[in-house]
Amino acid sequence: MLIQLVKTLPNVFSIGNFICGVLSITINMSGFPEASAIFIFLAAFFDLFDGRIARKLKADSALGIHLDSLADIVSFGVAPALLFHSFAPVSLLTSFAFILFPTMGVVRLARFSAHPTRGYFIGVPIPAAGLILAFMGLFSYSSSFITIILAVLMVAPIKVKKL
Amino acid sequence: MLIQLVKTLPNVFSIGNFICGVLSITINMSGFPEASAIFIFLAAFFDLFDGRIARKLKADSALGIHLDSLADIVSFGVAPALLFHSFAPVSLLTSFAFILFPTMGVVRLARFSAHPTRGYFIGVPIPAAGLILAFMGLFSYSSSFITIILAVLMVAPIKVKKL
Protein backbone atom coordinates (compact mmCIF):
# COMPACT_ATOMS: atom_id res chain seq x y z
CA MET A 1 0.00 0.00 0.00
CA LEU A 2 2.70 2.48 1.11
CA ILE A 3 4.98 1.37 -1.74
CA GLN A 4 2.17 1.90 -4.24
CA LEU A 5 1.53 5.36 -2.80
CA VAL A 6 5.22 6.27 -3.03
CA LYS A 7 5.32 5.03 -6.65
CA THR A 8 2.65 7.57 -7.65
CA LEU A 9 4.88 10.41 -6.35
CA PRO A 10 6.54 11.12 -9.75
CA ASN A 11 3.07 11.41 -11.33
CA VAL A 12 2.03 13.88 -8.62
CA PHE A 13 5.07 15.98 -9.61
CA SER A 14 4.10 15.82 -13.32
CA ILE A 15 0.57 16.93 -12.43
CA GLY A 16 2.13 19.73 -10.35
CA ASN A 17 4.08 20.77 -13.46
CA PHE A 18 0.84 20.73 -15.53
CA ILE A 19 -1.18 22.76 -12.98
CA CYS A 20 1.62 25.38 -12.80
CA GLY A 21 1.41 25.66 -16.61
CA VAL A 22 -2.36 26.17 -16.50
CA LEU A 23 -1.98 28.74 -13.69
CA SER A 24 0.75 30.56 -15.63
CA ILE A 25 -1.68 31.00 -18.55
CA THR A 26 -4.54 32.11 -16.27
CA ILE A 27 -2.40 34.65 -14.43
CA ASN A 28 -1.15 36.02 -17.74
CA MET A 29 -4.79 36.31 -18.89
CA SER A 30 -5.56 38.25 -15.72
CA GLY A 31 -2.91 40.83 -16.69
CA PHE A 32 0.12 39.76 -14.63
CA PRO A 33 2.61 38.46 -17.19
CA GLU A 34 5.65 38.69 -14.89
CA ALA A 35 3.91 36.52 -12.26
CA SER A 36 2.97 34.15 -15.08
CA ALA A 37 6.72 33.71 -15.80
CA ILE A 38 7.30 32.65 -12.19
CA PHE A 39 4.78 29.81 -12.60
CA ILE A 40 6.76 28.53 -15.59
CA PHE A 41 9.83 28.37 -13.29
CA LEU A 42 7.73 26.53 -10.68
CA ALA A 43 6.61 24.08 -13.39
CA ALA A 44 10.29 23.48 -14.22
CA PHE A 45 10.99 22.73 -10.56
CA PHE A 46 8.35 19.97 -10.62
CA ASP A 47 9.57 18.77 -14.03
CA LEU A 48 13.16 18.49 -12.79
CA PHE A 49 12.14 16.09 -10.09
CA ASP A 50 9.50 13.84 -11.66
CA GLY A 51 11.92 11.88 -13.85
CA ARG A 52 14.64 11.75 -11.18
CA ILE A 53 12.27 10.54 -8.47
CA ALA A 54 10.80 7.97 -10.89
CA ARG A 55 14.26 6.55 -11.67
CA LYS A 56 15.32 6.63 -8.00
CA LEU A 57 12.13 4.84 -6.90
CA LYS A 58 12.31 2.56 -9.97
CA ALA A 59 8.80 3.81 -10.65
CA ASP A 60 9.23 4.78 -14.32
CA SER A 61 5.95 3.95 -16.04
CA ALA A 62 4.32 4.46 -19.42
CA LEU A 63 1.67 6.55 -17.64
CA GLY A 64 4.40 8.75 -16.12
CA ILE A 65 6.16 9.33 -19.44
CA HIS A 66 2.90 10.45 -21.10
CA LEU A 67 1.90 12.66 -18.15
CA ASP A 68 5.31 14.35 -18.32
CA SER A 69 5.01 15.03 -22.04
CA LEU A 70 1.42 16.38 -21.76
CA ALA A 71 2.46 18.68 -18.90
CA ASP A 72 5.50 19.90 -20.85
CA ILE A 73 3.52 21.07 -23.89
CA VAL A 74 1.35 23.29 -21.67
CA SER A 75 4.02 24.58 -19.26
CA PHE A 76 6.95 24.99 -21.69
CA GLY A 77 5.19 25.27 -25.07
CA VAL A 78 1.90 27.15 -24.77
CA ALA A 79 2.48 29.18 -21.56
CA PRO A 80 5.85 30.69 -22.67
CA ALA A 81 4.46 31.45 -26.16
CA LEU A 82 1.56 33.35 -24.57
CA LEU A 83 4.03 35.19 -22.32
CA PHE A 84 6.04 36.20 -25.41
CA HIS A 85 2.76 37.27 -27.06
CA SER A 86 1.93 39.55 -24.09
CA PHE A 87 5.10 41.60 -24.51
CA ALA A 88 5.73 41.47 -28.25
CA PRO A 89 4.57 44.32 -30.50
CA VAL A 90 1.76 43.36 -32.92
CA SER A 91 3.29 42.33 -36.27
CA LEU A 92 3.29 39.49 -38.77
CA LEU A 93 6.70 38.36 -37.45
CA THR A 94 5.35 38.24 -33.89
CA SER A 95 2.36 36.12 -34.99
CA PHE A 96 4.67 33.79 -36.91
CA ALA A 97 7.03 33.36 -33.93
CA PHE A 98 4.08 32.94 -31.55
CA ILE A 99 2.61 30.04 -33.57
CA LEU A 100 5.96 28.49 -34.56
CA PHE A 101 7.26 28.09 -30.99
CA PRO A 102 4.54 25.82 -29.54
CA THR A 103 4.11 24.01 -32.89
CA MET A 104 7.78 23.00 -33.04
CA GLY A 105 7.46 22.13 -29.35
CA VAL A 106 4.60 19.73 -30.04
CA VAL A 107 6.50 18.13 -32.95
CA ARG A 108 9.56 17.71 -30.72
CA LEU A 109 7.62 16.10 -27.86
CA ALA A 110 5.70 13.74 -30.18
CA ARG A 111 8.93 12.71 -31.92
CA PHE A 112 10.68 12.03 -28.62
CA SER A 113 7.72 9.97 -27.32
CA ALA A 114 7.57 7.99 -30.57
CA HIS A 115 11.33 7.39 -30.77
CA PRO A 116 12.85 7.92 -27.30
CA THR A 117 16.62 8.34 -27.01
CA ARG A 118 18.68 7.43 -23.93
CA GLY A 119 21.38 9.66 -22.42
CA TYR A 120 20.96 12.37 -25.06
CA PHE A 121 18.25 14.36 -26.85
CA ILE A 122 17.86 15.23 -30.52
CA GLY A 123 17.19 18.99 -30.55
CA VAL A 124 16.98 21.39 -27.60
CA PRO A 125 14.51 20.04 -24.98
CA ILE A 126 11.27 22.03 -24.70
CA PRO A 127 11.73 22.89 -20.96
CA ALA A 128 15.05 24.61 -21.80
CA ALA A 129 13.48 26.61 -24.65
CA GLY A 130 10.41 27.48 -22.57
CA LEU A 131 12.54 28.60 -19.61
CA ILE A 132 14.52 31.01 -21.81
CA LEU A 133 11.25 32.66 -22.91
CA ALA A 134 10.05 32.72 -19.27
CA PHE A 135 13.33 34.37 -18.19
CA MET A 136 12.91 37.02 -20.91
CA GLY A 137 9.28 37.53 -19.80
CA LEU A 138 10.40 38.10 -16.22
CA PHE A 139 12.12 41.26 -17.51
CA SER A 140 9.17 42.20 -19.78
CA TYR A 141 11.43 41.47 -22.73
CA SER A 142 10.43 39.75 -25.97
CA SER A 143 12.25 38.96 -29.19
CA SER A 144 10.65 37.31 -32.22
CA PHE A 145 14.12 36.47 -33.49
CA ILE A 146 15.13 34.55 -30.33
CA THR A 147 11.70 32.84 -30.21
CA ILE A 148 12.06 31.62 -33.81
CA ILE A 149 15.64 30.43 -33.20
CA LEU A 150 14.51 28.48 -30.10
CA ALA A 151 11.61 26.95 -32.06
CA VAL A 152 13.98 25.76 -34.80
CA LEU A 153 16.54 24.46 -32.28
CA MET A 154 13.87 22.23 -30.72
CA VAL A 155 13.52 20.25 -33.96
CA ALA A 156 17.09 20.66 -35.23
CA PRO A 157 19.04 17.41 -35.78
CA ILE A 158 21.60 18.23 -33.09
CA LYS A 159 22.60 15.95 -30.21
CA VAL A 160 22.14 17.52 -26.76
CA LYS A 161 23.52 15.69 -23.70
CA LYS A 162 20.96 14.89 -20.98
CA LEU A 163 21.75 16.72 -17.71
CA MET B 1 7.67 10.77 -52.54
CA LEU B 2 3.97 11.54 -53.10
CA ILE B 3 2.97 8.59 -50.88
CA GLN B 4 5.23 9.90 -48.11
CA LEU B 5 3.67 13.34 -48.45
CA VAL B 6 0.15 11.89 -48.29
CA LYS B 7 1.09 9.88 -45.19
CA THR B 8 1.95 13.08 -43.30
CA LEU B 9 -1.59 14.40 -43.91
CA PRO B 10 -3.03 13.05 -40.60
CA ASN B 11 -0.21 14.76 -38.70
CA VAL B 12 -0.98 18.04 -40.48
CA PHE B 13 -4.57 17.69 -39.22
CA SER B 14 -3.34 17.05 -35.64
CA ILE B 15 -1.14 20.16 -35.85
CA GLY B 16 -4.18 22.04 -37.18
CA ASN B 17 -6.09 20.88 -34.09
CA PHE B 18 -3.22 22.07 -31.84
CA ILE B 19 -2.92 25.50 -33.52
CA CYS B 20 -6.71 26.01 -33.18
CA GLY B 21 -6.36 25.27 -29.46
CA VAL B 22 -3.54 27.82 -29.07
CA LEU B 23 -5.54 30.40 -31.06
CA SER B 24 -8.63 29.74 -28.93
CA ILE B 25 -6.62 30.61 -25.80
CA THR B 26 -5.09 33.73 -27.40
CA ILE B 27 -8.45 35.02 -28.64
CA ASN B 28 -9.95 34.43 -25.19
CA MET B 29 -7.01 36.37 -23.68
CA SER B 30 -7.75 39.22 -26.09
CA GLY B 31 -11.29 39.47 -24.67
CA PHE B 32 -13.36 37.53 -27.21
CA PRO B 33 -14.46 34.38 -25.35
CA GLU B 34 -17.30 33.51 -27.77
CA ALA B 35 -14.89 33.55 -30.73
CA SER B 36 -12.54 31.43 -28.63
CA ALA B 37 -15.31 28.78 -28.40
CA ILE B 38 -15.51 28.66 -32.20
CA PHE B 39 -11.81 27.76 -32.39
CA ILE B 40 -12.46 24.78 -30.09
CA PHE B 41 -15.09 23.60 -32.60
CA LEU B 42 -12.58 24.09 -35.43
CA ALA B 43 -10.04 22.04 -33.44
CA ALA B 44 -12.65 19.27 -33.15
CA PHE B 45 -13.13 19.33 -36.93
CA PHE B 46 -9.41 18.65 -37.41
CA ASP B 47 -9.44 16.06 -34.61
CA LEU B 48 -12.34 14.18 -36.20
CA PHE B 49 -10.40 13.66 -39.39
CA ASP B 50 -6.83 12.95 -38.29
CA GLY B 51 -7.54 9.45 -36.97
CA ARG B 52 -9.93 8.57 -39.81
CA ILE B 53 -7.55 9.73 -42.52
CA ALA B 54 -4.69 7.88 -40.82
CA ARG B 55 -6.65 4.61 -40.79
CA LYS B 56 -7.88 5.11 -44.36
CA LEU B 57 -4.35 5.83 -45.62
CA LYS B 58 -2.94 3.09 -43.37
CA ALA B 59 -0.69 5.86 -42.05
CA ASP B 60 -1.27 5.31 -38.29
CA SER B 61 2.04 6.01 -36.60
CA ALA B 62 3.40 6.35 -33.08
CA LEU B 63 4.24 9.98 -33.93
CA GLY B 64 0.62 10.58 -35.01
CA ILE B 65 -0.85 9.10 -31.83
CA HIS B 66 1.36 11.32 -29.64
CA LEU B 67 0.68 14.45 -31.73
CA ASP B 68 -3.06 13.80 -31.40
CA SER B 69 -2.87 13.45 -27.63
CA LEU B 70 -0.69 16.58 -27.19
CA ALA B 71 -3.09 18.60 -29.35
CA ASP B 72 -6.10 17.29 -27.41
CA ILE B 73 -4.85 18.45 -23.99
CA VAL B 74 -4.51 22.02 -25.28
CA SER B 75 -7.65 22.21 -27.45
CA PHE B 76 -10.07 20.20 -25.29
CA GLY B 77 -8.48 20.44 -21.83
CA VAL B 78 -6.85 23.83 -21.28
CA ALA B 79 -8.76 26.00 -23.81
CA PRO B 80 -12.29 24.96 -22.62
CA ALA B 81 -11.25 25.35 -18.95
CA LEU B 82 -10.07 28.91 -19.67
CA LEU B 83 -13.34 29.58 -21.52
CA PHE B 84 -15.28 28.37 -18.46
CA HIS B 85 -13.04 30.57 -16.28
CA SER B 86 -13.89 33.66 -18.40
CA PHE B 87 -17.62 33.35 -17.71
CA ALA B 88 -17.71 31.83 -14.22
CA PRO B 89 -18.14 34.06 -11.16
CA VAL B 90 -15.08 34.21 -8.86
CA SER B 91 -15.46 31.60 -6.10
CA LEU B 92 -13.64 28.66 -4.52
CA LEU B 93 -15.94 26.26 -6.40
CA THR B 94 -15.08 27.94 -9.72
CA SER B 95 -11.34 27.64 -9.01
CA PHE B 96 -11.76 23.98 -8.04
CA ALA B 97 -13.73 23.18 -11.22
CA PHE B 98 -11.28 25.18 -13.34
CA ILE B 99 -8.27 23.17 -12.11
CA LEU B 100 -10.06 19.81 -11.91
CA PHE B 101 -11.23 19.79 -15.55
CA PRO B 102 -7.85 19.95 -17.34
CA THR B 103 -6.19 17.84 -14.61
CA MET B 104 -8.62 14.95 -15.09
CA GLY B 105 -8.20 15.50 -18.84
CA VAL B 106 -4.44 15.05 -18.61
CA VAL B 107 -4.84 11.91 -16.46
CA ARG B 108 -7.32 10.49 -18.98
CA LEU B 109 -5.09 11.16 -21.99
CA ALA B 110 -1.98 9.73 -20.27
CA ARG B 111 -3.91 6.62 -19.20
CA PHE B 112 -5.25 6.04 -22.71
CA SER B 113 -1.79 6.49 -24.26
CA ALA B 114 -0.26 4.10 -21.71
CA HIS B 115 -3.00 1.47 -22.03
CA PRO B 116 -4.86 2.01 -25.33
CA THR B 117 -8.22 0.30 -25.81
CA ARG B 118 -9.68 -0.69 -29.19
CA GLY B 119 -13.28 -0.06 -30.24
CA TYR B 120 -14.22 1.55 -26.93
CA PHE B 121 -12.95 4.11 -24.41
CA ILE B 122 -12.78 3.97 -20.61
CA GLY B 123 -14.35 7.26 -19.47
CA VAL B 124 -15.78 10.09 -21.56
CA PRO B 125 -13.23 11.17 -24.23
CA ILE B 126 -11.70 14.60 -23.64
CA PRO B 127 -12.90 16.09 -27.01
CA ALA B 128 -16.53 15.33 -26.01
CA ALA B 129 -16.10 16.95 -22.58
CA GLY B 130 -14.25 19.94 -24.05
CA LEU B 131 -16.89 20.46 -26.74
CA ILE B 132 -19.68 20.60 -24.13
CA LEU B 133 -17.80 23.40 -22.31
CA ALA B 134 -17.20 25.15 -25.66
CA PHE B 135 -20.91 24.91 -26.51
CA MET B 136 -21.80 26.44 -23.14
CA GLY B 137 -19.20 29.18 -23.73
CA LEU B 138 -20.77 30.00 -27.08
CA PHE B 139 -23.84 31.14 -25.10
CA SER B 140 -21.73 32.89 -22.42
CA TYR B 141 -22.90 30.20 -20.00
CA SER B 142 -20.82 28.52 -17.31
CA SER B 143 -21.59 25.97 -14.61
CA SER B 144 -19.08 24.71 -12.05
CA PHE B 145 -21.36 21.75 -11.38
CA ILE B 146 -21.39 20.59 -15.04
CA THR B 147 -17.63 21.22 -15.34
CA ILE B 148 -16.91 19.04 -12.28
CA ILE B 149 -19.25 16.28 -13.53
CA LEU B 150 -17.50 16.28 -16.93
CA ALA B 151 -14.08 16.15 -15.23
CA VAL B 152 -15.11 13.12 -13.17
CA LEU B 153 -16.72 11.38 -16.18
CA MET B 154 -13.41 11.60 -18.07
CA VAL B 155 -11.71 9.33 -15.52
CA ALA B 156 -14.77 7.29 -14.50
CA PRO B 157 -14.49 3.50 -15.07
CA ILE B 158 -17.32 3.47 -17.66
CA LYS B 159 -17.13 1.96 -21.14
CA VAL B 160 -17.93 4.42 -23.94
CA LYS B 161 -18.32 3.09 -27.51
CA LYS B 162 -16.01 4.66 -30.11
CA LEU B 163 -17.96 6.57 -32.79
Automatic annotation (TrEMBL), chains A, B:
Localisation: Endomembrane system
Gene3D superfamilies in the record: 1.20.120.1760
InterPro entries the record matches: CDP-alcohol_PTase-I (IPR050324), CDP-diaglyc--ser_O-PTrfase (IPR004533), CDP-OH_P_trans (IPR000462), CDP-OH_PTrfase_TM_dom (IPR043130), CDP_ALCOHOL_P_TRANSF_CS (IPR048254)
Keywords: Lipid biosynthesis, Lipid metabolism, Membrane, Phospholipid biosynthesis, Phospholipid metabolism, Transferase, Transmembrane, Transmembrane helix
PROSITE patterns: CDP_ALCOHOL_P_TRANSF
Catalytic activity annotation: a CDP-1,2-diacyl-sn-glycerol + L-serine = a 1,2-diacyl-sn-glycero-3-phospho-L-serine + CMP + H(+)
Membrane topology: Multi-pass membrane protein
Pfam families, alphabetized: CDP-OH_P_transf (PF01066)
GO molecular function, one term: CDP-diacylglycerol-serine O-phosphatidyltransferase activity
Transmembrane segments: 12-29, 35-53, 65-84, 90-107
Coiled-coil blocks: none
EC number: 2.7.8.8
Stated family: Belongs to the CDP-alcohol phosphatidyltransferase class-I family.
NCBIfam families: pssA
PANTHER family reported for this sequence: CDP-DIACYLGLYCEROL--GLYCEROL-3-PHOSPHATE 3-PHOSPHATIDYLTRANSFERASE-RELATED, CDP-DIACYLGLYCEROL--SERINE O-PHOSPHATIDYLTRANSFERASE
Protein name stated in the entry: CDP-diacylglycerol--serine O-phosphatidyltransferase
Annotated source species: Heyndrickxia acidicola
Gene: pssA
